[in-house]
Amino acid sequence: QQIIILRLRKAYGFRNLAVRGAEVRLRIQRLEHTFYCLLYKRVQI
User: Quick one: CA torsion of 11, 16, 22, 24, rounded to 10 degrees?
Assistant: First the structure.
């Protein structure tokens, strides 16, 4: 019985890590996007 609980807990932990990784990637993409937009505007001006 306990082995199943441990396995579930491990799987849940991995899923949480995957979700966090995706969030971090999205944040980095947004930062890059805003950075490139700023650069683009500077080049235009």
Answer: -140
Q: What is the mean pLDDT of the chain?
A: 90
For residues 25 and 28, what is the distance between their CA atoms, to the nearest angstrom? 5
Query: pTM for this structure?
Result: 0.55
**Whole-angstrom Cα Rg for the chain:** 20
Instruction: Give the type of residue at 39.
Output: L
At 12, the amino acid letter reads: Y
**CA dist., res. 40 & res. 14, Å (int):** 39
Q: Please report the DSSP string for 10-44 in residue order.
A: HHHHHHHHHHHHHHHHHHHHHHHHHHHHHHHHHHH
